[in-house]
Amino acid sequence: MKIGVIGPGAIGCLFGALFSRAGHEVWVLDHRPERAQLLDRQGILGHDPNGQDWRAQVRATAEAVRIGPVPLALLCVKSAAVAEAVAAARPMLGNKTLVVALQNGLGHHPVLDAALPFWALGITSQGANISGPGHLIRGGQGPTLLGFLAPAPDWAWARLTETVAMLSQAGLPAELSPDIRAAAWNKLIVNAGINALTALENCPNGELLKRPAALALMTEATQEAARVARQSGVSINADPLAMTMAVCRATAANRSSMLQDVRSGRPTEVEAINGEVVRRGQELGIATPANELLLARVLALRA
Ligand code: PAF
Question: Which domains can be identified in the chain, with CATH numbers?
Answer without folding.
Answer: 2-178 (3.40.50.720), 181-300 (1.10.1040.10)
